[in-house]
Design a protein that fits this description.
seven-stranded antiparallel β-sheet; globular; 19% strand; D-amino Acid Aminotransferase, Chain A, domain 1; Helix Hairpins; alpha+beta; OB fold (Dihydrolipoamide Acetyltransferase, E2P)
């Protein structure tokens, strides 16, 4: 392919993929399958690697992430990002309105109301229509440059194609995790034995500051914009919003222009409960003067604008009787207490259960059966108990003694040092653990067996047809026909789905077998690093620690998993069933012998490369990558935050320790 052909192909693919992205994310429509879309994206990625000089500024490959940012540069805001004054009462709003009227000396004015989204404030800077910088709020004067992470947000435009755009302008918005994404993220963490995230807002804030933009992309952040700055043709807040909409920015359609403070109060009442149906968390309403000239006339205090205020809704909380506690057992054996409540109607739904988190929380609250408890409904599906109404406690309230045996199988519970949860140790005999492992195994990110579901797994278990994932591959048509609701066609679909899962790649199988703390991303890294299940199974703790994304907790979990005979037997059965336990990722093509068969151990974090990139460079240039420091090692390539034990061992054995700059000199020698 000539350079000109490549330029045109990259241009055409960029346009096509952006078109389909816009259909999917802005209009909720699709014209091609996920597979076809992925093929287009893969083709573009490959072309851009060969001809990087032709990468378009709005290339969809920038949404995928992959850049490692060791430090986020501090940037001064062109327009300070001031905080707003808060109020919880209509009286305060009426007083705010009086101050506005006085400050404007009798001029007519109108308000603009927008829901206050519970996320992370973000400043987006555009030059000549191209997104050049995304900056966090920080202290309001300076924030962190998180541009590489912002570019992964699908509905943040990378390029504005319009005639009426200023040379430089700024867009303010709120980056957030949608409720559905946050719930899935917590389910995934629960699935691999990690603690759940506390709330979507803090999780979004942590995601925005992640060093690996590839991981940020997988989190599927979203963004609503709410302000346009730096456009001299914008004279009202409303006209700025309309421009942002015409430029294809994602603006929540929940705003309203109001002619009086009573209209504002009516808007607050309209959205008090309706906001709970939105796909993200909200905690109030921002009320601002619509006219930009009047905003400038009213000015600022030292901390906030005089022309705007935030009305905060009070948390949706009610008191009801605690009738009892049930205990749920998850796939990893973790036991979770759930409050059984006298039903109440809270924030639009009837609530019968609420989360109690763990034994520590029950003890902290000094909770008793019969107590009247305060229940709040936030972003979680299950509301939470936040406190006790002690004025209603009487002598009949029963002190709660946390269970010491599994509610499902009767095994004695145990606690892992440093963790709040209790666990059931009966891995092979506790029904919810067994069924949970099969449910984990068949999910979309694992073996992707769509025709299997929770109800079918429950039937298979009850009939003794599936006690482990490997049993699925022994199923016959006559076995499936024993299941309620299954006929010839549905039985064939199920068996075909199971057979098709044998084509899933090694990283999916590794995730599916359910090693604690090994999520999808870690499974991908382990599969790439160790290449096949046999090498991984034989890896020492130290060798596991050398793998990317692996810390002490994961290394110990993986090592312990492969020491257990029942896990070894299960993997052997899955091998015999024909599952893929070998990475099909090809070694990079050799470019030179400049490293002359020298061996390297890579450890720590690096400014210009991630560890996978360094490994590829070493292999392409005739070097070898080892997993552990030994006397035969040529170089320890040391980045920041490298474990001190590796350095000590290398120094003791006389191994040459090199930096990232030293490595580049080796390549160019």
């Amino acid at each position: 392919m000539t350079a000109e052909e490549a330029r045109l192909a990259i241009q055409e693919l960029t346009g096509r993929i952006n078109y389909h992205n816009d259909l999917y994310y802005q209009k909720n429509k699709t014209e091609i399958s996920d597979y076809e879309f992925d093929q287009l994206l893969e083709k573009l990625i490959n072309l851009e690697k060969q001809f990087p000089e032709f990468i378009q500024p709005d290339s969809p490959t920038q949404r995928v992430g992959g850049t490692i940012t060791k430090e986020f540069i501090s940037v001064q805001h062109r327009y300070p990002m001031l905080s707003l004054g808060n109020t919880y009462s209509e009286e305060d709003l009426i007083e705010f309105d009086r101050r506005i009227a006085k400050g404007l000396d009798g001029e007519k004015y109108e308000y603009f109301c927008e829901l206050k989204f519970d996320g992370v404030s973000m400043s987006l800077i555009y030059e000549k229509g191209v997104l050049v910088r995304g900056v966090t709020r920080g202290d309001g004067v300076r924030g962190d440059d998180v541009t590489t992470n912002v570019k992964t947000i699908r509905n943040v435009p990378l390029v504005i194609k319009a005639k009426d755009i200023p040379e430089i302008f700024e867009v303010r918005g709120e980056v957030f995790l949608p409720k559905e994404v946050f719930t899935k993220l917590n389910k995934e963490r629960e699935d691999v034995g990690e603690e759940r995230y506390a709330n979507a807002r803090n999780t979004a804030a942590g995601t925005v500051k992640m060093q690996d933009s590839g991981e940020v992309a997988r989190r599927k952040l979203d963004c609503y914009v709410y302000s346009l700055l730096g456009d001299p043709d914008v004279h009202t807040h409303e006209s700025g919003i309309k421009k942002l909409e015409s430029w294809k920015f994602n603006v929540s359609p929940t705003y309203k222009k109001c002619g009086s403070i009573q209209d504002v109060i009516d808007y607050l009442k309209e959205w008090e409960f309706k906001r709970l149906e939105l796909p993200l968390e909200t905690d109030g309403v921002v009320i601002k003067i619509n006219s930009i000239e009047q905003q400038e006339q009213l000015g600022f205090t030292a901390k906030s604008p005089r022309w705007a205020i935030a009305y905060k809704y009070k948390a949706q909380s009610m008191s009801t009787r605690l009738n009892g506690i049930t205990y749920q057992v998850g796939r990893t054996g973790a036991v979770t207490p759930v409050a059984v409540l006298e039903p109440i109607f809270l924030a639009g739904t009837t609530v019968k259960r609420a989360s109690l988190h763990n034994a520590n929380e029950i003890a902290r609250l000094d909770l008793r059966i019969g107590d009247y408890v305060f229940v709040e409904k936030g972003g979680e599906i299950i509301p939470k108990v936040t406190g006790i109404d002690l004025s209603k406690r009487d002598d009949s309230c029963e002190v709660i003694k946390y269970i010491d045996k599994c509610p499902e199988c009767g095994s004695k519970l145990y606690r892992i040092e440093g963790e709040a949860a209790y666990y059931c140790p009966n891995v092979t005999g506790c029904p919810p653990q067994i069924k949970g492992r099969i449910e984990h195994f068949i999910q979309r990110k694992a073996m992707d067996i769509e025709s299997l579901g929770e109800r079918t797994i429950d039937q298979l278990y009850s009939l003794g047809l599936a006690k482990t994932p490997a049993d699925l591959y022994d199923l016959k048509k006559e076995d499936v026909l024993r299941l309620e609701g299954f006929k010839d066609k549905s039985a064939k679909n199920l068996l075909d789905g199971i057979a098709a899962s044998k084509e899933r790649p090694f990283e999916s199988v590794l995730f599916a077998i359910g090693i604690r703390y090994v999520g999808k991303t870690v499974a991908e890294k382990l599969a790439r690093y160790f290449k096949n299940i046999d090498i991984l199974a034989k890896a020492s703790y130290e060798e596991l620690m050398n793998a990317p994304e692996v810390g002490e907790k994961i290394a110990k979990s993986v090592f312990d998993f492969f020491q257990k005979p029942e896990n070894q037997f299960e993997i052997q059965r899955l091998k015999q069933a024909g599952l893929n336990f070998q990475s099909d990722e090809k070694e990079p093509e050799k470019e030179s012998d400049v490293l002359g068969n020298k061996s390297f151990v890579i450890s720590g974090t690096f400014e210009k490369y991630d560890r996978d990139q360094l490994k590829d460079i070493i292999l392409k240039n005739g070097g070898r990558v080892l997993s552990a420091v030994s006397g035969k090692l040529d170089y320890l390539l040391a980045g920041d935050n490298m474990g001190p034990s590796k350095r000590e061992k290398a120094e003791k054995l006389g191994v040459t320790i090199i930096t990232e700059n030293d490595f580049e000199k080796l390549l160019n020698s």
